[in-house]
Design a protein that fits this description.
The chain has 220 residues and is mainly α. The protein folds into 2 domains: 64 residues, no CATH class; 128 residues, Lysozyme, CATH 1.10.530.10. Helices cover 52% and strands 6% of the residues. A 3-stranded antiparallel beta sheet has the order 2-1-3, with helices on one face.
Length: 220
């Protein structure tokens, strides 16, 4: 039994080391190529060998690892004033939730774009999930049972935005800062926290909000 436990422990440690190596390798590659996502997929072959890839596997079960939100990379080379917009994905759910909670649908699209790049299966390194990257505890408070289901995620995320908009009296910069860094951080610093990630996030959400707003007449 002791021998078996030791072997299992060695296998677990080897898997962890492999994941760390994969993370380092793919992170370097992502920085060099300015990838739009930094997802890493892990899966097992038919022989039970654990493998890692930055390309979504086909025909096998896999787990996804994602690091940082889409608009949070401080040194991103994306031109946010020209980046492709996504006007049609989840249009119905976004408009319905926006109408229900009185939130500008252009802001909702901007947050989804900034958080997950419209990837409903996105999972962050901190455990945030889905289109609007809801943390499990926040999702539970918002009544979201499964954050990876787009409709539920949008409903919960817009509800959360509505709460922040009310709290910060319509100041969308503080809303974005709180969405990214948390309400506690905004309170502690008396405004947008001095975190580079949060500062660029707030700026990029504002740019996306303005751009999506230009097409509001097409998305009702």
């Amino acid at each position: 039994m002791v021998k078996t436990a030791t072997i299992n422990s060695l296998k677990l440690n080897a898997t962890r080391l492999a994941l760390l190596f994969a993370v380092a390798t793919f992170s370097i590659a992502a920085s060099a190529q300015d990838k739009k996502t930094t997802d890493i997929y892990t899966y097992k072959s038919k022989k039970g060998v654990t493998s890692f890839s930055d390309i979504e596997p086909i025909g096998v079960s896999y787990s996804r690892y994602k690091f940082d939100c889409y608009a949070c990379e401080v040194d991103s080379l994306i031109d946010w004033r020209k980046a492709k917009l996504y006007l049609n994905p989840y249009k119905y759910h976004i408009n319905q939730a926006s109408l229900q909670y009185g939130v500008d649908p252009a802001l909702v699209r901007a947050v989804i774009h900034a958080e997950s790049h419209f990837n409903p299966q996105a999972i962050s390194k901190t455990g945030a999930q889905g289109l609007m990257q809801l943390m499990p505890a926040t999702a539970r408070e918002l009544g979201v049972k499964n954050s990876l289901i787009a409709q539920q995620n949008i409903q919960g995320g817009v509800k959360h935005l509505a709460k922040l908009i009310k709290k910060y009296q319509g100041d969308n910069k503080l809303v974005a800062a709180a969405y990214n860094a948390g309400e506690g951080a905004v309170k502690r610093f008396g405004g947008i926290p001095p975190y580079k990630e949060t500062q660029v996030y707030v700026e990029r959400v504002a740019i996306l909000h303005q751009r999506y707003g230009r097409f509001s007449h097409q998305n009702r």
